[in-house]
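Q: Here's a chain of 122 amino acids. Please give me its 3D structure as tokens.
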Amino acid sequence: MKPIVSPWTIYFASRADSLKILAGCILICCIIAICIAFIEGDIDYGSVLTHKSFMKKCAIVSVISAVTLVITPSTETIYTMAVVKEITPDNIQAIGKTGKDVIDYITDQIDKVINDKEENKK
């Protein structure tokens, strides 16, 4: 019998939150760098023009980081998407619960297994 959720899905789902944190940190760093470059621009030489290429690069990285931050789903959303394709009306009626209850139960079980493995490593 094949597993409901692929082990690779569980692995990449656990990395989704880390990706969001990384994208957020990069976004904040780029915004700070743009502010510093804007403030430190020399007034005699046209202020921001001396840091123009640096600011363009930071702006591009900021946009990419913001898009990554917005479109990266949470770990729970990835689990839900992976499990939903396996749930059928017959499965739900056999269990006697609503679809959301089934998805929540499966997501909780996946989290429990992952947390148990992490605790065993320590």
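Q: Can you summarize the key feature?
A: The chain has a mean pLDDT of 76.
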